[in-house]
Structure formats: structure tokens, C-alpha cells
Specification:
This is Prepilin leader peptidase/N-methyltransferase. This protein is an all-alpha fold and 257 residues long. It has nine helices and no strands. It has one domain.
Length: 257
């Protein structure tokens, strides 16, 4: 079933949000690739990392350019990082799903949630980094959704934000006291708090459970490949929580329809 606010035909929302997702994905990929390296995000034009040639607008069309160029620079033939088209496709899929489940304002909100979560998930996976400059807007937008009357209601969101952040902070503090070293990154409690501000407190246990199951699946997959985890290996909890949180939002909205 669909949640529809009556603004235009329902089929328009997946299309419009999907196209927006391609554009957002192009920017998100740039953020993911440049920011951890300290490179400018907004002021430097896109260029080939091999020959340095500035890319023309026709070479920057999301997904289409990657297909036409076969993922390589047309000047030097260097392979272009596939993360570009992967993030573009991911953002489009996220937005289409949001538009199908909740045409209207709720779908727009869900698409934004998914875009931010995907960006954070990949940043944490690649650099073990959950920047406050993304987590804070995610949290504020979660609060804004409650103020605008989107489900869940504002009190549930507030309890979710407080409970999410406090629970992981306490776990991290206890682990540090017990083992004498950090077991969680400083951004993980903030991210779960931000997720709580979107989903409310009731879904947080499910998010943590699903994140744990995904992590267990990764460990088992590595064991099958003969690459068993050792004690000091780390899994990006932020990535696991982000992967669990967006399907939880889809489920929550779909059940409310």
C-alpha cells in the first residue's frame, strides 16, 4: 500500500525522486572520494585522476557517462573509480523505493534519509569516519520530520534520539573501562541517535539486531573465503547500522499505509 498526500499522480514521485537520486548520487560520490583525502568538494572541477584532464559536462551525466565510456577516461584510458556509478545507482534506487512506498512529502523525506545514510555508510566503510557535518543534519532533519507531523510522532523521535545515543555511549564507555581501549568510534552513538530521531525508539532494537546479523554475515563470508577475523579486526558499525536503518524506515512507512 502507498501513502499519498494527493499532490500529483503517485507514479510521478518515484520517477522524479529517482532522477534526483542520480544527481545527488553524483555529488555524494564526489564527497566520499574527495573529503577523506582533504580535497575540495565544491571548488575543484571534476578531472581524470590519471591525466588530469578536466571532464566536460557530457562526461558527467550520472550512470550514462559510465556506460558510454565503459568506466575509463577517454583520453588516457585510466579506469574511473566504479564508486561513482555505484553510489549514483544506489541513490536512485533508494529514492525510487521511497517514492513507491510513500508518494509525497514522506517519500521526499525518506529519500533524503537514504541518501545521507548511504553517504555515511560508504564513508565509514572506506575510512572508518562518520563526520559530524553529515550526522548533525541527519539528526536535525529527523526532528524536522516530527515537527511537520510525519510518522512517528515527535515524542517517539525524541526518545529514539536520546535512547539511541545514550545506549551506544554507555556501551562504548563500559568497553573502554573494561578493556582499556576504544571499542566503538565516537560517531557511532551520534549516528544511532540520529537514526532514532527518524525511526523513533521502538525500531532501534530491530536496527541494532539487523546490524549485528549483517556483521555476522560478513564474518561468516570471510571465514568461507578462508579469511577468518582476528581479535583486532574492526567492522564499521556505522555502515551496518545505516544498512539496517533504511529498510526499517521502508517497513515502518509501508506498515503505516
Amino acid at each position: 500500500m502507498l501513502i499519498h498526500d494527493g499532490i500529483g499522480p503517485a507514479w510521478v514521485w518515484p520517477v522524479v525522486l529517482g532522477l534526483a537520486g542520480l544527481l545527488i548520487g553524483s555529488f555524494a560520490a564526489t564527497v566520499i572520494l574527495r573529503w577523506p583525502e582533504g580535497r575540495s568538494i565544491a571548488r575543484v572541477r571534476s578531472a581524470c585522476d590519471g591525466c588530469g584532464r578536466t571532464l566536460k559536462p557530457a562526461e558527467l551525466v550520472p550512470l550514462v557517462s559510465a556506460v558510454i565510456s565503459r568506466g575509463r577516461c577517454r583520453s588516457c584510458g585510466m579506469r574511473i573509480d566504479p564508486l561513482h556509478w555505484q553510489v549514483e545507482a544506489g541513490c536512485a534506487i533508494i529514492a525510487i523505493a521511497a517514492g513507491i512506498v510513500a508518494p509525497g512529502l514522506a517519500g521526499v523525506a525518506g529519500a533524503i534519509l537514504g541518501w545521507l545514510l548511504l553517504t555515511l555508510a560508504v564513508l565509514d566503510l572506506r575510512a572508518f569516519w562518520l563526520p559530524d557535518a553529515i550526522v548533525a543534519p541527519l539528526a536535525l532533519l529527523g526532528l524536522a520530520g516530527g515537527v511537520l507531523g510525519l510518522a512517528p510522532d515527535l515524542p517517539d523521535r525524541l526518545w529514539g534520539g536520546l535512547g539511541g545515543r545514550a545506549s551506544l555511549w554507555l556501551i562504548a564507555a563500559g568497553y573502554r573501562r573494561w578493556r582499556g581501549r576504544d571499542g566503538l568510534g565516537g560517531g557511532d552513538p551520534k549516528l544511532l541517535g540520529a537514526i532514532g530521531l527518524w525511526l523513533g525508539w521502538r525500531l532501534l532494537p530491530a536496527v541494532l539486531l539487523c546490524a549485528g546479523l549483517i556483521g555476522l554475515g560478513v564474518v561468516l563470508f570471510r571465514m568461507v573465503q578462508g579469511r577468518a577475523m582476528v581479535r583486532d579486526d574492526a567492522l564499521p558499525l556505522g555502515t551496518l547500522m545505516a544498512l539496517a536503518a533504511y529498510p526499517a524506515w521502508l517497513m515502518m512507512v509501508g506498515m503505516a499505509a
